[in-house]
Amino acid sequence: MDAQGRGQAGDMDPADQWVLNPNTGSYELRIDPAADAAPGQSSPAGANRSPAPATAEAARRAVPSPSPPADGSPADGSPADRTAAPPGRRSVPDQRGRRAAGKGSSRRKAKPKASGKKKALTWTGGVLAFLLVGGSVTGYLVYQHFNNNIDKVDVGVNNAAVVDGPVNILVIGTDKRDGKGNKGYGDDGSVGHADTTLLFHVSEDRSNATALSIPRDMITDIPECETSQDGVKKTIPGSHKVRFNESLGQEGRDPGCTWRTVEKITGLKVNHFMMADFNAVKKLSSAVDGVEVCLGKDIDDPDSHLKLSKGRHSVQGEEALAFVRTRHSVGFGGDLSRIELQQQFLSSMIRKMKSGGTLTNPSKLYDLADAATKSLTVDTGIGSVTKLTSVAKDLSKVDLKHITFATVPVLDNPEDGPVHKTVILDKAKAEPLFSMVKQDVSLTEVKQKEKQQEKAAKDKQAALLKGPKAAAADVRARVFNGSKKIGAAQATLSWLQNNQGMLRTSNGGNAPGGKKQDTTTLEFAPNQADQARRLADAMGLPASALKQGTQDAAPMAEMKLILGADYKGAGVPIGAPSKAPSGIQKVEADDKNVCAK
Question: Is the CB of residue 359 less than 8 Å from the CB of residue 288?
């Protein structure tokens, strides 16, 4: 409730008790300036206030009780308490709906209107929990204390905090061993690598979100990147065929290098990054009084120090860190199995953050905000609590049941020999998955919105895909290369003839006029619609790629297939599939039945 100087300090929002003293430039705790002022005096800014607590913890726990008026009048809300103020003291106005003593008023107490801080609390609560920051960034961010907690890194990109289109936030969990108790987890003195990495994608309409986990041991190319070290810009050369986790820490690389590596792998443009270390897991899990996890068997892992019995547990602090670090005792005992544990943990944390018990508890929210900002490093584009709050409010529109965690598909590295220690990108599955994310296709198994269904039903282009399909042997088409890839037309032609049985296809060479185009198109006549459907099905063409003419073609005429910049390779679908490829590991954020085995 908002009490702000109305004699109801016991109901005050603690954030509302802090005011800026213009004489010192600092926030100070204001308990009851009217009661503390001497008769005949007003309460100047910064005067007659209790001294500010020395620490943020003291600030959080400072919840005062009502102070009786200096003149001895009742402090129970009676008329004397409000109308008989001594000279020089401001009268406290009647509170609406409050029963006046002795008047027998039957008016019920009106529901207080939420303050701006309370609204921000509701908007932002829990949204970015699994990003290791989220719902804690609430109305309490008025404290400069939180602003000073945040570390920033200039990665050479200064994007706006909030954008109208889709959003991609890179979340990096490092294996840096700073902090109490962290040396026991190995690699003492490590500069910190990209140990846990998520690319959190939110659709343009904020209807769904996908968090892609990138395996740390995936072999990839790290592009050249520019860093700023002690104010001096330095260009770090790229690396060929190395572990992904070397994109951070190795050779002095900063989060900007991981940023560019992820863009190169996925083809998605990153807007911002958020980075945290081991301490974030311990502090945040404790701030919410534990995160529920589930094990399908007993675990006693001396490496991660996790010792838990089969079943459900609430973990926090060191035990929470041990849970997300363990890997030898679950699944196949590798990093991919650990990713599944981390996805379960983060999904559960989201649910805990969004729960009423967290959102309505000022003490928990303060602890959460303090823990999150102390553990956080971000890019300069979101390097303040104001900007972080704006991001949280924007992303809070995503429904929990439409958030999915998925692991980037990989294969065992054939160069490892019999003992597989690293993995490589499974392009056949990864490219369709990246395409789905890029085109805002949700991975959650939920029904499409009615308005989307209506729009699809009215879409004439979509209707072109419905109907009979010609036999593969009857498809006649000439393939043109309008992409930026040399040999694309011939590669596609060979695939169509040898893999799809479309022998009546031919190579048209470069696109007419040598023009490049962004998207692949298939031009056909009305009497070739059945052939177009067969070819579109084989190529994975979206409805938007089909261009039907108005006049029928000659019996032996060829359709015109022009490959665009969206061409990824022979046999790779052009458009985004409606469902994720089979075998994709994923966890839906609202699934409470996930249990590690």
Answer: no
